[in-house]
Amino acid sequence: MSQKFKILFSVLVMAIILFALLNLNTGFLYLHFSDFVSETSQSQIAEIRINRVLVMILAGVSIPTSGFLMQEYFQNPLAGPDILGITSIASLSVAFYIFFSQNLFIPEIFQNSFMSISAIGGSLLLMTLLLAVSRKFSDKSYLIIFGFLVSALAGAVVSMLQLYAEDQSLKNYILWSFGANNTATKNQIYILGILVIIGLFFCFKTIKPLIGNSLGSAYAQSFGVNLNRLKILIIATSSLLSASVTAFIGPILFVGIIVPHFCRMIYNPSKLWHQWLLNMLLGIAIMLVFSIFAEKSHIPINVISSVFGIPVILMMLLKQSRS
Fold first, then answer.
1. What is the pLDDT of residue 301?
2. Exposure winner among 9, 170, 221, 269, fewest CB in 10 A?
3. Where does residue 322 rank: exposed (0-12), middle (13-18), buried (19+ CB within 10 A)?
């Protein structure tokens, strides 16, 4: 492990601790340490803030990891978690649930859970379809085109649903689409944590084959890399990680593109094990910063990530056009 990596690792860990503490003290009320460790009149507020930090940590791990896998597999710095249409289908599933469940009696305590289940269920169906389609396409570019078509179709259907939706349904969907970091309950965080751990386990299995794949398909096969198995693992892992976060806190755009880009700028891009770890640490730090801005400004976190991400992507495109 190089000295530069140790320094980067230490700086990012300290930044995460600092931003987490700032998150815990960001809100309408100032909380004392006792509010977080014992039962007080403000313990419920303290629990909401703890849940907010935990959700941002899980999102910071999941979204950049998903983007990292997509970019390394497709060898495209503009690839992100939504490149295969997973985020779009999760959004479409939530839209169907919100727009068609208004006439059903669903206890309020279960509404967020059913919304998350619908998003994950839709994403799993698309993942199954992607795995089936991937067997037909040997060229990676066809998968990207397929994902683009799925995203376009999902967007068109969502627009149609919005056109005929009732006012309250439309408002609920728009609020969800902005990204909500304060609404996740403790049980939802447990479920999200389990899904993220499973996704990270599969990601661990893909790093070594990805190293071989980055040197070329023929080279990878000569060293025993099963390219079909790698493709299935990449699709399954990226789908699980991005869909889980989308299900519980809404779509968080551009983070999965810009974090891997920054990590390649600050450290050797060929060292994938180090890159993966840096992606997770930097992703957590950025999501915690976004959460602080969201609480201070009352601007939805998805809007903040877009305002931050779009200029970065434009600079990436300009840089590529000059090279």
1. 87
2. 221
3. exposed
Half-sphere exposure of 214 (CA within 13 A, CB side): 16
pTM: 0.87
Of 248, 219, 292, 260, which Cα lies nearest the Cα of 120?
248
Distance CA(225)–CA(145), nearest Å, equals 25
Compute the average pLDDT of residues 291-298: 89
Where do we find the tokens 């396409």? 137
> Rounded to the nearest 5°, which phi and psi values hold at 2?
-75, 160
Q: pLDDT tens digits, residue range 226-252?
A: 888 888 888 888 888 888 888 888 888
Helix/strand/coil percentages in the chain, nearest 5: 80, 0, 20
Question: Does the pLDDT value for residue 111 go beyond 60?
Answer: no
Tokens 């839709």, residue? 122
Angle, alpha carbons 92-94-99 (nearest 5°): 95
Residue 41 tokens read as 């009149």
Tell me the pLDDT band of 267, cut-offs 50, 70 and 90. Answer: very high
First-to-last CA distance in the chain? 31
